Amino acid sequence: MSEKIKRPSLFLFATEGVRVIWELVQSIRFRGEYVPERTGDGHAVLVIPGLFGVDMLMLPMRRFLTRLGYTPYKWGLGINMANPEDLEALVQKVDTLYEKHQDKISVVGWSLGGLYARELAKRKPDKIRQIITTGSPFGGVENPNNVVWILNLLKGKVEDIWDRELIDRASEPTPVLTTSIYSKTDGIVRWQDCMCEMEDKLHRNEEAVSSHLGMPHNVSVLKIIAERLPDKIY
User: What's the CATH number where 159 sits?
Assistant: First the structure.
């Protein structure tokens, strides 16, 4: 008999609120002063919030990226309610940013935003330079976690919202450079579901020490993003 898949501990879940505030305060100086060995080249970076998230939550990350020399963009679709039509709007946004900059863009997605980033990479590999996901459970979209019950209450089961084909291919390898950031102290989703199954020249996993809710401003998460965004596969 296979081992039952367990969601993150209730202790980690219960401490998410306290940790997210501490991580925000702790990162203020880092976000204002840290400079990686390689800084940005001005290319566009689309930043996508997680489930029930809004652009305001991603503001610390966008300001950080601006200071490092990138050109970050909001997702601009209000509250992320996992609406299927949002993905279609993001596809159009990728096209628009590509045309505006005449260059491939990067996409950074937090939680559900990372699932969108992965799908964008599969649909528009010719226009996306790389993607970075933070706490995105693409390896087990339907596995138990500490947030899906809210989604079920508001909108129904995942398979009632998203196309079955979209769910099934969430874990399939992306055709562009991909960094998957996970945290073993994530109190919302299983860290094991946030990792690429196989690592190679295109797919890499990076461990951060972060709450789930704090990932948009957590020091260890932002440092990984800063170190990886300059990368490019020629």
Answer: 3.40.50.1820
Query: What tokens does 172 get?
Result: 């399939």
CA distance 174 to 129: 12
Q: Considering the domain boundaries, does residue 5 fall inside one?
A: no
Segment 85-137, tens digit of pLDDT:
999 999 999 999 999 999 999 999 999 999 999 999 999 999 999 999 999 99
Q: Can you read off the two tokens belonging to residue 212?
A: 């789930």
The domain in which residue 17 lies consists of 10-34+41-228
pTM over cut 0.85: yes
Beta bridge mates, 206: 181
The amino acid sitting at 138 is F
The amino acid at 214: G
**Residues 79, 112: contact at Cβ < 8 Å?**
no
Residue carrying structure tokens 């509250």 = 79
The residue type at 103: D
Residue 155 lies in a domain: yes
Whether residue 157 has pLDDT greater than 70: no
Question: Which residues, 6+ apart, have CB-to-CB distance to 189 below 8 Å?
Answer: 8, 111, 135, 137, 145, 146, 147, 212
Domain count for the chain: 1
pLDDT at 2: 43
